[in-house]
Amino acid sequence: MSTTSVSTNTFTTARKKMTTLAYRQKKERGEIITMLTAYDYPTALAMDKAGIDSILVGDSLGMVVLGYENTLPVTMEEMLHHCRAVSRGAKSALLVGDMPFMSYQVSVEEATRNAGRFLQHGGMDAIKLEGGHERAGAIRSIVEAGIPVMGHLGLTPQSVNQLGGFRAQGKTAAAAKRLVEDALILEDAGCFSIVLESVPARLAELISKKISIPTIGIGAGAGCDGQVLVTHDLLGLFDRFTPKFVKQYADFHSAMQKAFSQYIEEVESKRFPAQEHTVEMKDVEWDALLHEINA
Ligand code: KIV
Fold this sequence. Notes:
CATH architecture of the largest domain: Alpha-Beta Barrel
Helix content: 40-55%
Mean pLDDT: 94
Order of helices and strands: EEHEHEHHEHEHEHHEHEEHHH
Strand order of the largest sheet: 3-4-5-6-7-8-9-10
Bound molecules: 3-methyl-2-oxobutanoic acid
Largest sheet: 8 strands, parallel, barrel
Strand content: 5-15%
Number of domains: 2
CATH superfamily of the largest domain: Phosphoenolpyruvate-binding domains
């Protein structure tokens, strides 16, 4: 049920806050879950207003916003800085903070402490981390601390060096079996949901049917319980490459470049600022000033 609130001059409908329980119930009702990444206040605000179920402050931040080659250099401080901005913009979506490389791999204690920082200092509702059976201990400990955990299987970008590049996973029977087993282990360890990235669609559908928690697919076909995309790919804001599984809904990079070129041209030709962008001063004040400085 939604509640109605009054904004400055229009009536807006404030959505009920999305929770991990509501996430699970959507799967049970066969309703698709929506998720996108965001890294800043205005994007989070627009997504929340559009009615997105959940927002991931992904460590893809490193590539699409900070310009790193991959996600490995991203730090806890960078993640928390962007999480806080997103949390100021989005009030209804379930907010998931992505644990960066080496913030949860060294020890269960460190993983739990860092996970807590996302809720305590980042304004997040839950965390996401990458990996299968090898992460079960950390996931159990984080969940025991009262922090909802989203798993991430398949193409796990923090293991790019181990995987030999950003390539699809689970394409052989043996690899697919390991992914099914890992999904069951993550469910058992207490994850409330699992991202499946770049795996065959029929495998993602099989996993989605085998586990009771929602799967969120990216490059994993239509058989998942929800979908996520990196927003900069969807908006055409990331110029380096666009993965095959992305649908580009806009070309913001070209639109931005066009706007910047127009601005430069108008400033150089003195068409901007025009009269309407200019602060006026009354003649009487101006004359008084001239009288003062010339006196
Ligand atoms: O960092 C990220 O944006 C992600 C998504 C690709 C799921 O992990």
